[in-house]
Amino acid sequence: MPTKPLDRLMFAQGGLCFFCNVPLPKAEASVEHLVALARNGTNGDDNCVACCKAMNALLGSMSLKEKIKVVLNQKGQFKCPNGAGCTPAKPQSSSPTKPRASSAENEALSAVIANLKGRGNARPRRMKTLVSTIRALPLKLSGQQVSAVIQQLQSNGKIVVDGTQVSYKL
Predict the structure, then answer these.
(1) Domain 5-87 of CATH type 1.10.10.10
(2) What are phi and psi of 22, to 5 degrees?
């Protein structure tokens, strides 16, 4: 019986994320096409890597050149969009305001998910509209908090972002 592509990639990468090189639970893993299928990439193992769902959503159907630029812009201090990564998060977590922001973001995440579920087929289909929808909720979120909620939605697999398009798995 042939193994699944994700299983092969996870084995070949030692169970680590291709981009941030930290342990990657299979439930959080997805297949990233280095050359996107939308850009005539293939499903072959030479074009695919295992990474977290948040990173996959971030890279979307960018060109290989754009993806390399995202990685290079990290300047050796790669920070995974799901909060993991090779750089220690200790300096940021020592801030006294960090726990409150995290709690507010978790409450906001629950409120946003409830709102989106209630919308049924009338959910925003474009990222710009999703951001506007979240900002219009009576949560009083900053732009940074809205971005954090959207990243949480992606990393939890609740939304999938492909370029500017948004699809839902609520």
Answers:
(1) no
(2) -110, 160
Question: Which tens digit of pLDDT belongs to each residue from 12-59?
Answer: 999 988 888 888 888 889 999 999 998 899 999 899 999 988 888 888
DSSP 3-state assignment of 105? helix
**How many angstroms separate the CA atoms of 104 and 9, rounded?**
36
Partner residues linked to 166 by β-bridges: 161
pLDDT of residue 83: 65
DSSP string for residues in 32-100: EESS-GGGT---SGGGEEEEEHHHHHHHTT--HHHHHHHHHTTTT--B-TTS-BSS--HHHHTSTTHHH
| Domain range 93-168, CATH architecture | Orthogonal Bundle (1.10)
pLDDT tens for each residue of 80-100: 777 654 433 333 334 343 334
What pLDDT shows up at residue 84? 52
Burial class (CB in 10 A: 0-12, 13-18, 19+), 90: exposed
Q: How do the domains of the chain map onto residue ranges?
A: 5-87, 93-168
The yes-or-no answer to whether 5-87 and 93-168 have a common fold is no
